[in-house]
Amino acid sequence: MPERGLDAIEEEAVTWFVRLHDEDATDADRAAHAGWLAADPRHGVAWAEVAQLWTALQGAAAPNVVVLPKARAVPPQPARPVQRRRFAMAAAVALMVGSAGWMATHPGLFADERTGTGERRSLTLSDGSRVELATASALSVDFTDRERKVVLHDGEAFFSVAKDARPFRVQAADGVITDIGTAFDVKMAAETVHVSVTEGIVDIASGTGQPVRLMRGQSASYSPTGIGPRQTVDPANVGLWREGRLAFDNAPLPDVLRDLERYRHGRIVVMDKSLSRLTVSGMFDATRTDAALSTIERTLPVRLVRITRYLVLVYPAE
Fold first, then answer.
1. Chain mean position to CA 310
2. How confident is the model at residue 2 (pLDDT cuts 50, 70, 90)?
3. Strands 245-252, 279-285: parallel, antiparallel or unpaired by DSSP?
4. Which domains are seen in the chain, by residue range?
5. Tell me: the pLDDT tens digits for 32-55?
6. d(Cα 193, Cα 191) in Å, to the nearest integer?
7. How far apart are CA 193 and CA 174, in angstroms?
């Protein structure tokens, strides 16, 4: 009987992944999967690839399954181009993320204001303050007689705050930025929130640590581990996204790709954690993300695999 190609095995791996991801998966399913893994060392290769795609797309662990012992060597496979069946595997994993994780990854689903991919919007609040909402962003407004509160659920926004006796506060993740007559930018990126001030003063409070005050030309970031040190920034370079430009100065590659992803439909997935050591400096046109990706591929030791225009995988250069 002719030997099956690796692409057919990848399809089986996707089928197993979907089956074991189902909440109704049984011990018998897991035992059968273990038998499938043990039947051919190439099954472990395909399974690892599907699990890697899922982890990269969803940021979650693979289902609770038996892992093939390392003692079994895998025969080297010849190099081959990305084919329709590889696309089917990647698309299937992406669809799994779309169905299983969409609600969890859209915290601003019921926000007062939100923008789509590539969209920007300017808002004037009831107190006269202006908010410029970046692409793929969401916020809610809660003004009372005592305070003006805005919740940034996702994405990025630039605030130009009107004078008012009530304090103006922006809640983003587990921190609160309090305005003291200012203009500032707030950007959420994974678990980190970046705050940059172009005018006036803001106070940042997060966790149990001491608040940090930022002046014009200063920035700081906070995360669940606390507030980072103050950094100096050029106010002219803050919020360049409002002009359709994205500027980076020694920014980690995954952060840059995450920014670019917000300006295009689909996903850009980093397939190797070692790529987080690479940095990017430069300015890109937010409307030409494909050109930005091509520039990154030319200037950094990375390899881009374009499954479709909606799914780009980023590997270390071979």
1. 15
2. very low
3. antiparallel
4. 6-74+81-100 (no CATH), 113-239 (2.60.120.1440), 244-316 (3.55.50.30)
5. 999 999 999 989 888 888 777 777
6. 7
7. 9
Residue type for position 188: M
Task: Give the predicted TM-score (pTM) of the model.
Answer: 0.70
SS3 string of the chain? CCCCCHHHHHHHHHHHHHHHHCCCCCHHHHHHHHHHHHHCHHHHHHHHHHHHHHHHHHCCCCCCCCCCCCCCCCCCCCCCCCCHHHHHHHHHHHHHHHHHCCCCCCCCCCCCEECCCCCCEEEECCCCCEEEECCCCEEEEEECCCCEEEEEEECEEEEECCCCCCCEEEEECCEEEEEEEEEEEEEEECCEEEEEEEEEEEEEEECCCCCEEEECCEEEEEECCEECCCEECCHHHCCHHHHCEEEEEEEEHHHHHHHHHCCCCCEEEECCHHHHHCEEEEEEECCCHHHHHHHHHHHCCEEEEEEECCEEEEEECC
